[in-house]
Amino acid sequence: MENVYDVVIIGGGPAGLSAGLYAARGKMTTLILEKEKTGGQIATTEEVANYPGSITDATGPALVARMVEQCNEFGAKIEKDTIKEVKLEGKIKILVGEKNTYHAKSIIVAPGASPRLLGVPGEKELTGKGVSYCATCDGDFFTDFEVFVIGGGDSAVEEAMFITKFARKVTIVHRREELRAAKSIQEKAFKHPKIDFIWNTTIKEIKGDGLVESVVFENLKTGEITEHHADEEDGTFGIFMFVGYIPQTDLFKGMLDMDRTGYIVTDDNMKTNVPGVFGAGDCRVKSLRQVVTAVSDGAIAAVQAEKYIENNFEE
Ligand code: NAP
């Protein structure tokens, strides 16, 4: 048989990198597979203010770079590949990627979650042309322009604050009249001179020919429909969507136990229903999805993978 890794980790976000660090440090042969860029969502987060110890240079990319360096130092391999198929039934698990096939004694599933689309007409067509899901990536395109941020959670309010660095005005559009975001973040946003709110409102349609030109809002309480047009001089404006995330777990449907929304069910030791397969990070059913809980999951999963190998594979 080809090279069999002790642990293959799917996903190079904080959960996967933490698992990689612990696994490699535990002298297990470790491979981290990432389909895009290491770091997951945190790689596009400007400020990570609530990760303990992250005070100087507390940007997402800086934190990710330190995590990657630490993984490399302990000998974890990080490779770019997209896994298309998994075979979990045998003692040796098989992962079929676009580039290679991988064999592993244990697997840590840490693929994270991706932004949820609002699903309104015009959204897909105008993504990258005024509609965005990443303030760090696209915020500066809207320097001195107007921006609408959709959603009322931590992401919407934090990213709205970040966009005020560029935009001349940021309006948070939320479907209720109370934000879901943490109170501490809310207070800052309410006080911010560049931030306005539109309550009980959602988007019905986004219009534009090559660039966002107008947006149709619906007031969910009164049913009133209004259309906001770009300022004549600007010709366009930004719409940033932060309406939650969807776990990237399709690959494991029918194999791993999940809740109704696709989050993987694990026990406190990150064990899934399949022996030797562990879940970690935002893909799993949990009450708090943050870097600090993701790295904790990764560490637990790696230590449990080590125990699983000790008990199930002879030297
Ligand atoms: P979230 O907490 O799920 O919030 C999503 C927001 O979008 C909610 O306000 C929701 O409204 C709204 N929404 C959902 N579907 C919608 C629709 N179809 N139309 C209009 N609005 C819709 O997502 P998140 O803010 O991305 O946060 C995800 C997780 O990461 C959370 O656990 C959050 O605490 C965490 N996070 C933490 C930090 C931090 O601690 N600094 C930063 C970012 C994210 P309702 O409120 O009415 O449901």
From TrEMBL:
Molecular-function annotations in GO: thioredoxin-disulfide reductase (NADPH) activity
Pfam families in the record: Pyr_redox_2
Gene3D superfamilies: FAD/NAD(P)-binding domain
Known cofactor(s): FAD
Domain FAD/NAD(P)-binding: 5-298
Catalytic activity: [thioredoxin]-dithiol + NADP(+) = [thioredoxin]-disulfide + NADPH + H(+)
Keywords: Disulfide bond, FAD, Flavoprotein, NADP, Oxidoreductase, Redox-active center
One GO BP annotation of this record: removal of superoxide radicals
Cofactor binding, note field: Binds 1 FAD per subunit.
Gene Ontology CC annotations of this record: cytoplasm
Domain of life: Bacteria
EC numbers for this chain: 1.8.1.9
Family: Belongs to the class-II pyridine nucleotide-disulfide oxidoreductase family.
Subunit structure: Homodimer.
PANTHER family per record: THIOREDOXIN REDUCTASE 1-RELATED-RELATED
The name this protein goes by in its record: Thioredoxin reductase
